[in-house]
Amino acid sequence: METPAAPHHPADLRITVNSPEQMRDFGRRLAKVLHAGDLVMLSGELGAGKTTLTRGLGEGLGVRGAVTSPTFVIARVHPALGDGPPLVHVDAYRLGGGLDEMEDLDLDVSLPESVIVVEWGEGKVEELTDDRLQIRIHRAVGDTDDEVRHVTVSALGRRWASADLGVLSA
């Protein structure tokens, strides 16, 4: 019996964002393609705009509470104000190793009914699901006040194999 071929994944989507307002708008557009059970991993340097993107995502999902960086509490749950999914916002920066520490957060329990966004999650949360969006935000580093960000969206897994992410670059 043959093993089924891995699903085809569309090429990475690349977007240029020129301001924090545009990053929030990107988050609001992202909310339109997400539903309960989706995992979004965000990576990028400090100050790249991960929390700004998540703030827009929270606005787009219509969740309660101000979306702020959960650096010191590790995770925050923002319940839905309507009938959409809650947003679980995780900052894995302070978590040292792998899924062991992440398991304490019970993300696998929250995942089916929530949208989970994990900042600094690479190497820590991939085992939660094969289906995820990986969003990398690149910015100029050093002594600069350059607001330009280059965002790369990688869609992984069957969930995203046929998804149209074109709405994100609108």
Notable traits:
disordered N terminus, 170 residues, globular, alpha/beta, seven-stranded mixed beta sheet, 5 helices, single chain
Describe this entry's structure for a reader.
This protein has 170 residues and is of the alpha/beta class. The protein contains 5 helices and 7 strands; from the N terminus they run E-H-E-H-E-E-H-H-E-E-E-H. Strand 3 and strand 4 form a beta hairpin. The longest helix is centred in the N-terminal third of the chain and has 12 residues.
How much is the average pLDDT?
83
Number of strands: 7
- Per DSSP, what share of the residues sits in E-state strands of 2 or more residues? 15-25%
Helix content: 10-25%
Which radius of gyration do the C-alpha atoms yield? 16 Å
How many helices? The count is 5
Instruction: List unreliable stretches of 5+ residues.
Output: 1-9
Task: Map the helices and strands.
Layout: E1 13-17, H1 20-31, E2 39-44, H2 50-61, E3 75-78, E4 87-91, H3 98-103, H4 107-110, E5 115-119, E6 132-139, E7 149-156, H5 158-161
Parallel strand pairs: 2-5, 2-6, 4-5
Antiparallel strand pairs: 1-7, 3-4, 6-7
Helix pairs in contact: 1-2
In short:
This protein is α/β, with parallel strands linked by helices and 170 residues long. The protein has five helices and seven strands. It starts with 12 loop residues before the first strand and ends in a 9-residue tail after the last helix.
